[in-house]
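Form P-L/3: holo structure prediction, ligand zinc ion.
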Amino acid sequence: MLQYFMSGVIFSSSAGKGKWSTWEGWERAMRNWEAGEVKIFDYKSETEVTVDRIVKPEEEYGKQLPADVFRIVREQGTETPFSGKYVDHRQKGIYRCVVCGTDLFLSDAKFESGTGWPSFSQPVSPLNILEESDMSGGMVRTEVRCARCGSHLGHVFDDGPKPTGMRYCMNSAALAFEGIP
Ligand SMILES: [Zn+2]
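OUTPUT (holo model):
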Protein backbone atom coordinates (compact mmCIF):
# COMPACT_ATOMS: atom_id res chain seq x y z
CA MET A 1 0.00 0.00 0.00
CA LEU A 2 2.86 2.34 0.82
CA GLN A 3 4.24 2.16 -2.67
CA TYR A 4 0.86 3.07 -4.15
CA PHE A 5 0.56 5.92 -1.72
CA MET A 6 4.03 7.18 -2.53
CA SER A 7 3.34 6.99 -6.23
CA GLY A 8 0.13 8.86 -5.63
CA VAL A 9 2.00 11.67 -3.91
CA ILE A 10 4.52 11.92 -6.71
CA PHE A 11 1.75 11.78 -9.25
CA SER A 12 -0.34 14.46 -7.59
CA SER A 13 2.63 16.77 -7.16
CA SER A 14 2.96 16.86 -10.93
CA ALA A 15 -0.70 17.67 -11.52
CA GLY A 16 -1.06 20.83 -13.53
CA LYS A 17 2.62 21.12 -14.35
CA GLY A 18 2.56 18.02 -16.54
CA LYS A 19 -0.05 19.44 -18.78
CA TRP A 20 2.10 22.37 -19.83
CA SER A 21 5.42 20.60 -20.18
CA THR A 22 3.92 18.02 -22.51
CA TRP A 23 1.54 20.31 -24.29
CA GLU A 24 3.69 20.48 -27.41
CA GLY A 25 4.04 16.71 -27.55
CA TRP A 26 0.34 16.24 -27.05
CA GLU A 27 -0.50 18.81 -29.71
CA ARG A 28 1.84 17.14 -32.16
CA ALA A 29 0.35 13.71 -31.42
CA MET A 30 -3.18 14.97 -31.96
CA ARG A 31 -2.21 16.78 -35.17
CA ASN A 32 -0.96 13.45 -36.45
CA TRP A 33 -4.14 11.71 -35.33
CA GLU A 34 -5.43 10.65 -38.69
CA ALA A 35 -8.65 9.15 -39.94
CA GLY A 36 -8.46 5.39 -40.38
CA GLU A 37 -9.70 2.12 -39.04
CA VAL A 38 -8.84 0.65 -35.68
CA LYS A 39 -9.60 -2.80 -34.31
CA ILE A 40 -11.04 -2.83 -30.79
CA PHE A 41 -12.58 -5.48 -28.56
CA ASP A 42 -16.33 -5.23 -27.93
CA TYR A 43 -17.11 -6.67 -24.51
CA LYS A 44 -20.83 -7.37 -25.03
CA SER A 45 -20.42 -9.35 -28.25
CA GLU A 46 -17.03 -10.69 -27.14
CA THR A 47 -15.62 -10.02 -30.58
CA GLU A 48 -13.00 -7.82 -32.14
CA VAL A 49 -14.64 -5.14 -34.27
CA THR A 50 -13.17 -2.72 -36.79
CA VAL A 51 -14.33 0.87 -36.29
CA ASP A 52 -13.38 4.29 -37.64
CA ARG A 53 -10.97 6.27 -35.53
CA ILE A 54 -12.67 9.42 -34.25
CA VAL A 55 -11.05 12.56 -35.62
CA LYS A 56 -12.54 15.93 -34.65
CA PRO A 57 -11.27 19.47 -34.20
CA GLU A 58 -10.59 20.33 -30.55
CA GLU A 59 -13.17 23.12 -30.77
CA GLU A 60 -15.84 20.50 -31.34
CA TYR A 61 -14.75 18.56 -28.28
CA GLY A 62 -14.86 21.85 -26.41
CA LYS A 63 -18.55 22.22 -27.25
CA GLN A 64 -19.36 18.54 -26.68
CA LEU A 65 -17.71 18.02 -23.28
CA PRO A 66 -18.13 19.74 -19.90
CA ALA A 67 -15.13 21.98 -19.13
CA ASP A 68 -13.79 19.74 -16.33
CA VAL A 69 -13.90 16.67 -18.59
CA PHE A 70 -12.37 18.52 -21.54
CA ARG A 71 -9.45 19.66 -19.38
CA ILE A 72 -8.62 16.03 -18.53
CA VAL A 73 -9.26 14.14 -21.75
CA ARG A 74 -8.26 16.74 -24.34
CA GLU A 75 -5.70 18.78 -22.39
CA GLN A 76 -4.00 15.89 -20.60
CA GLY A 77 -5.15 17.07 -17.18
CA THR A 78 -5.21 15.18 -13.90
CA GLU A 79 -8.09 15.40 -11.47
CA THR A 80 -7.49 16.09 -7.78
CA PRO A 81 -6.95 12.81 -5.89
CA PHE A 82 -10.03 11.44 -4.06
CA SER A 83 -12.25 13.88 -5.99
CA GLY A 84 -13.43 11.60 -8.80
CA LYS A 85 -16.78 9.84 -8.73
CA TYR A 86 -15.32 6.38 -9.37
CA VAL A 87 -12.58 6.30 -6.69
CA ASP A 88 -14.73 4.32 -4.22
CA HIS A 89 -17.14 2.96 -6.80
CA ARG A 90 -17.72 -0.77 -6.28
CA GLN A 91 -20.59 -1.75 -8.56
CA LYS A 92 -20.24 -4.60 -11.02
CA GLY A 93 -20.02 -3.42 -14.59
CA ILE A 94 -17.89 -1.82 -17.26
CA TYR A 95 -16.06 1.49 -17.51
CA ARG A 96 -16.01 3.04 -20.98
CA CYS A 97 -14.34 6.03 -22.61
CA VAL A 98 -16.50 9.05 -21.69
CA VAL A 99 -15.85 10.56 -25.13
CA CYS A 100 -16.49 7.68 -27.55
CA GLY A 101 -17.85 4.77 -25.50
CA THR A 102 -15.00 2.35 -26.18
CA ASP A 103 -14.92 -0.44 -23.55
CA LEU A 104 -11.94 0.16 -21.26
CA PHE A 105 -12.04 -1.60 -17.88
CA LEU A 106 -14.19 -4.19 -16.12
CA SER A 107 -15.09 -3.77 -12.45
CA ASP A 108 -13.44 -7.16 -11.84
CA ALA A 109 -10.07 -5.52 -12.58
CA LYS A 110 -10.65 -2.60 -10.18
CA PHE A 111 -8.71 -2.58 -6.91
CA GLU A 112 -8.11 -0.31 -3.93
CA SER A 113 -4.82 1.44 -4.60
CA GLY A 114 -5.10 4.15 -1.94
CA THR A 115 -3.91 6.75 -4.46
CA GLY A 116 -7.21 8.60 -4.81
CA TRP A 117 -7.70 7.63 -8.44
CA PRO A 118 -9.69 4.64 -9.77
CA SER A 119 -7.15 1.88 -10.35
CA PHE A 120 -7.34 -1.22 -12.52
CA SER A 121 -5.01 -4.17 -12.99
CA GLN A 122 -5.73 -4.57 -16.71
CA PRO A 123 -7.83 -3.15 -19.57
CA VAL A 124 -10.71 -5.02 -21.21
CA SER A 125 -8.28 -5.60 -24.09
CA PRO A 126 -4.87 -4.18 -24.98
CA LEU A 127 -6.46 -3.29 -28.34
CA ASN A 128 -8.66 -0.67 -26.70
CA ILE A 129 -5.93 1.55 -25.29
CA LEU A 130 -2.73 3.22 -26.44
CA GLU A 131 0.26 3.41 -24.13
CA GLU A 132 2.78 6.15 -24.82
CA SER A 133 5.88 7.40 -23.07
CA ASP A 134 5.30 10.63 -21.14
CA MET A 135 8.37 12.55 -19.96
CA SER A 136 6.47 15.40 -18.30
CA GLY A 137 7.13 16.67 -14.77
CA GLY A 138 10.69 15.28 -14.66
CA MET A 139 9.34 11.72 -14.57
CA VAL A 140 9.19 8.90 -17.04
CA ARG A 141 5.64 7.68 -17.07
CA THR A 142 3.43 5.82 -19.50
CA GLU A 143 0.37 7.71 -20.62
CA VAL A 144 -2.81 5.77 -21.40
CA ARG A 145 -5.09 6.99 -24.18
CA CYS A 146 -8.24 5.68 -25.84
CA ALA A 147 -7.41 3.74 -29.01
CA ARG A 148 -10.46 5.01 -30.86
CA CYS A 149 -10.58 8.75 -30.06
CA GLY A 150 -7.08 9.38 -28.66
CA SER A 151 -8.41 10.97 -25.47
CA HIS A 152 -6.15 11.07 -22.43
CA LEU A 153 -7.31 8.63 -19.74
CA GLY A 154 -4.49 8.49 -17.17
CA HIS A 155 -1.18 6.66 -16.67
CA VAL A 156 -0.06 3.08 -16.09
CA PHE A 157 2.56 1.98 -13.53
CA ASP A 158 4.19 -1.38 -12.90
CA ASP A 159 3.54 -1.50 -9.14
CA GLY A 160 0.08 -3.08 -9.31
CA PRO A 161 -1.14 -6.32 -7.71
CA LYS A 162 -0.42 -9.79 -9.05
CA PRO A 163 -0.90 -11.45 -11.44
CA THR A 164 -0.58 -8.54 -13.91
CA GLY A 165 1.57 -6.32 -11.67
CA MET A 166 0.10 -3.30 -13.44
CA ARG A 167 -1.74 -0.30 -12.02
CA TYR A 168 -3.84 1.63 -14.53
CA CYS A 169 -4.32 4.92 -12.72
CA MET A 170 -7.32 6.59 -14.34
CA ASN A 171 -9.20 9.86 -14.08
CA SER A 172 -12.86 9.32 -13.17
CA ALA A 173 -13.78 12.16 -15.52
CA ALA A 174 -12.45 10.15 -18.48
CA LEU A 175 -14.74 7.20 -17.71
CA ALA A 176 -18.45 6.40 -18.04
CA PHE A 177 -19.76 3.43 -16.06
CA GLU A 178 -22.53 1.02 -16.97
CA GLY A 179 -23.70 -1.58 -14.49
CA ILE A 180 -23.89 -5.22 -15.57
CA PRO A 181 -26.37 -7.36 -13.59
ZN1 LIG B 1 -12.46 7.20 -26.69
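COMMENT: The chain has one domain: 35-80+88-179.
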